[in-house]
Backbone:
């Protein structure tokens, strides 16, 4: 049973549960917490059932949203002997209670080579940086080989303390891309946010190869930039503003939030510091603010903007609004 496939939306993920089951059996662990990312949530009951049947431990599933490795359910952690955090690569070394957490990475079996071969036709450089997300990391060496066979030097680098693997980027962290001296990147993975983030964080050309659709495309960050400058312009009318600070261990940026508070006050804004578990549209409506600055996950402001009826800015966008900076900088957590 070692590595099993589980459904996440329309995708299949490989999870190696056997090591965790062994840990539970050997440690005679009685209570296990299970945290599953949103895209794989439907598999949570099946995974819980398997753990219970194989080990006899009680399993408590975290019902709260989970979007990344930054978001460990520390409240559930206090109720259990071991928390299994599924899907993401380990981060948050040194966080209290983390010794009770086992990160169980999910890997996608979808072969990216067809999409990478198509991406080659779109690349303009003969030396490119290769970046990906944790689900596709096992394919990195084969991707580099495909590039080499077509006369392109593919290079990959380690990033900073938030990412533990070569080539790994997060929606909030592109250090593995910025560490490379290249003019162009190949992103291997699904979705638009990571390649858009890579393009904005590096200010370089990005080609994306999608292992699920087998398609390749050149990433154009201009539509997102236009929407972001639209949000900045709309926020200019707001007198009362909130600065949001996340309670999640890997998203909490209180010092940055205080800096934003001080900047806003200095420029005559009516500023409020707000501590949140999850940023929700109703909460912002009830606060009665005209705009907000989110120091939580950058995806909240950039990816989920359509959910909010007030402009939600990242810290660098707020600095543009206040006239403290001219250039657009992608909000990264390092
Ligand atoms: S802050 Fe956002 S992008 Fe970064 S790891 Fe957490 S959920 Fe992912």
Residues:
């Amino acid at each position: 049973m070692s590595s099993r496939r589980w459904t996440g939306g329309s995708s299949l993920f490989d999870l190696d549960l056997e090591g965790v089951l062994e840990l539970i059996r050997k440690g005679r662990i009685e209570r296990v917490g299970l945290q599953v990312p949103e895209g794989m949530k439907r598999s949570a009951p099946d995974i819980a059932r398997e753990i219970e049947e194989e080990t006899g431990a009680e399993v408590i599933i975290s019902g709260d949203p989970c979007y990344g490795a930054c978001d460990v359910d520390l409240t559930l952690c206090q109720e259990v002997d071991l928390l299994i955090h599924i899907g993401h690569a380990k981060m948050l070394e040194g966080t209290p209670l983390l010794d009770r957490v086992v990160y169980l990475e999910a890997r996608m079996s979808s072969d990216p080579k067809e999409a990478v071969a198509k991406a080659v036709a779109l690349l303009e450089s003969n030396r490119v940086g290769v970046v990906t997300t944790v689900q596709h990391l096992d394919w990195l060496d084969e991707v580099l080989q495909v590039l080499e066979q077509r006369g392109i030097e593919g290079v990959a680098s380690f990033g900073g303390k938030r990412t533990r693997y070569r080539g790994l980027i997060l929606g909030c962290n592109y250090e593995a891309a910025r560490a490379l001296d290249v003019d162009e990147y190949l992103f291997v993975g699904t979705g638009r946010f990571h390649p858009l983030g890579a393009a904005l964080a590096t200010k370089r050309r990005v080609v994306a190869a999608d292992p699920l659709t087998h398609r390749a495309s050149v990433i154009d960050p201009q539509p997102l930039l236009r929407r972001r400058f639209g949000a900045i312009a709309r926020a200019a009318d707001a007198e009362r503003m909130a600065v949001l600070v996340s309670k999640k261990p890997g998203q909490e940026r209180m010092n940055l939030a205080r800096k934003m508070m001080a900047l806003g006050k200095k420029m005559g804004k009516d500023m409020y510091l707000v501590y949140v578990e999850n940023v929700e549209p109703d909460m912002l409506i009830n606060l009665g603010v005209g705009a907000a600055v989110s120091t939580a996950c950058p995806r909240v402001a950039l990816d989920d903007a359509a959910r909010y009826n007030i402009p939600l800015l990242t810290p660098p966008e707020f600095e543009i609004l206040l006239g403290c900076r001219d250039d657009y900088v992608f909000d990264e957590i390092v």
Observations:
- Residues 113-220 form a domain with the Rossmann fold fold (CATH 3.40.50.11850).
- The pocket of iron/sulfur cluster is lined by residues 67-71, 170-172, 250-251, 297, 299, 333 (CB under 6 Å).
